[in-house]
Amino acid sequence: MLSSLWQSPPGAKGADPDPDPPAPLVSTWKVRADASEAPAIVRVRNLQSVMAAGRDAWGRDAKPQPVLLSSEVSFARPFSTASADDSVNAETVHYGNLSKTLLNGIELFSFPPSKKKGLVATRRQEGPATPRTADVFELLWVQMTGRVVDGSRVALPLDQVPFLDAAKLRSLSLTIHLPKASLLGDGVSLTTATCFVDASELADEKKKNPQRSYARCLRLHGLRVPTLIGVNPNERKAKQMVVVDVEIDRFDVLEDIHTELEGLVVAVGYIFLSVYSNTLVSLFLCCIFPRQVGHHITNITNDPIQTLEASSFETLEALGTHIANKILDEFRIQDSPQPMRERGWQVRVCLEKPIAVPFADCPAVEVRVGS
């Protein structure tokens, strides 16, 4: 379970020394099933800003990079009076104010830590000197709901009111997308979604955690890897571009690990599916992912001059399952020996072959592996 990242400012009234039980971390599908279909929704997509937190495509900390913020607010009741009166009232939320809340929160992380003059330091007494993406996420979540991501603790001082009223909500999702945080793809995103309990269940207990369940998902978008794959004779003669989307559901990690994860996925694509010299491919990978894939290359092969044409896959089904199992069984976080399968991750891999079917955008195969 995730630990809280948020610390109230020194001397602030309203600290919560007696937290509620945290909501369970489940899959995104389970949160959607718990929430069911909402009668009314307000969305904001791809608010553009700058974030100097987390890591960039090269694995460097706190480098300014573009960020896209998206949120979906689902309500437990329909817009009866709001639609009848043609006005924005308490039944809904003003999407302009929702946008301002998100942008005001991300503005605290728009400059590197050395240039922020303690803006964020006053809000967090402990933790890493360089804010992680998870730190940014929790600050935005607290401003919107008043509680930490798992709902276990009230994090806003008594003199501040959260932007949203949880008693009126069916579900809430928030996404931070970093479109330039990938060397070979369309970026990385982190999404949290939660389902709220019915307001009647909170009537007698003011402190009760309003969240029924929540999910966290890390996504690598559109990794483009030249790959030898296919069952047709012409497909065995040369590589073709394969577009890979990877989703890590039930993501329980606070560190920014997307560069290492991308390195592993790309290493599988290049090394296991290469028709060229392993030495050349390894050199290329070590140049663009020096820290991420060096140890993976050592573990994958002991003969630096063999070709791996015999190890190549013919189907997307086999390749997708192989990538997912590699992540679950071989990926490690820092010095922890625990494999990701034991952490309960669910890995979803979607593979596309854009040129395989000339008169279609692409054929695609998606697999899900893990508990």
From TrEMBL:
GO terms for cellular component: cytoplasm. Pathway: Cofactor biosynthesis; tetrahydrofolate biosynthesis; 2-amino-4-hydroxy-6-hydroxymethyl-7,8-dihydropteridine diphosphate from 7,8-dihydroneopterin triphosphate: step 3/4. GO terms for molecular function: dihydroneopterin aldolase activity. Residues 1-25 are annotated as: Disordered. The keyword Lyase applies. SUPFAM superfamilies: Tetrahydrobiopterin biosynthesis enzymes-like. GO terms for biological process: folic acid biosynthetic process. Residues 218-369 form the Dihydroneopterin aldolase/epimerase domain. Its EC number is 4.1.2.25. Keywords: Folate biosynthesis, Lyase. It catalyses: 7,8-dihydroneopterin = 6-hydroxymethyl-7,8-dihydropterin + glycolaldehyde. Belongs to the DHNA family. This is dihydroneopterin aldolase. The lineage of its organism: Eukaryota, Fungi, Dikarya, Ascomycota, Pezizomycotina.
